[in-house]
Amino acid sequence: MELFQYDEKEFKGFTDLGIDELLTKQKPELVNWINLDGLHDRNIIGKIGEYFSLHSLLLEDISKDHQPKVEEYENYLFFTLKMLYRIENDVIDYEQISFVLGKNYLISFQEKEGDLFGPLRERIRLDQGRIRKKKADYLLYRLIDIIVDNYYTVLDSIGQQIEQIEDNIYNNSPGQEFRKIQRLKKELIYLRKALYPLRDAMSKLIKDESGFIDSSNSRFFSDIYNHVAHLIDSLDTYKDLTSGLMDIYINTLNTRMNEVMKVLTVISTIFIPLTFIVGVYGMNFDFMPELHWKLGYFGVLGAMLVVVVVMIRYFRYKKWF
231 and 152 in contact (C-beta within 8 Å)? Predict the structure, then answer.
């Protein structure tokens, strides 16, 4: 657990506090940011809920996997979304993060240790930018903005994978790329489930009339909404490109199969007259004049060679291979 308290003139930071000690340090005259890593301890979550009078359904939502959403309560605002880190071993590394925004506090609940907020903590500590001059709603904006900006990193990684798969399909054996394409499609489906509800939640947050979002900060949340809309456009583009990859994959397989069949057909066609010649002279009739010709064997081989050369030249003239 972490506690950051600040205003324009004062800053205090506490880490590794017990829950009771952390709650007693709350100062209404400062912005209080409580960050909790790990949701396994129900006792800690229960004490936080009791201290801030959080609804029991909200506490359940914090511990369960949910689509992004925003809910307004009488004394606070609840917001939850997915925090994406990177694509590792072709799998998106993510966690659910939830925020509870009050008049002078912000509580963030994370599933695991580590996040994207290290540079922001440092800016708060060093009083860089405008964050120390703003209230808790601006802190919520900065945290959501950091999360949404990292979506671009994940989508860029997907774009690079699409380019790499396309190159591999054209240059190498495409058989290995099928599973990668299927994995990409699953990642895009997951992102779709994370982004579309997030856009709706941001729209609701912009229209908030509860007073938790200051009117001067609404434009910042509108900017995040525009970013999410742009991410959705990029997501749809990548979805089309991935579908195109599957078409390219199938066409490439068909083309290569046709090439193989063409070669086999040419070889079979060449051997048809040769097989005929061999079949004729393989008959066991007593009266076959060529059988007693001293150069008969070499003559037949020569005739067969001439047939092969003529057929190959004809096939090349027709541009069959």
Answer: yes
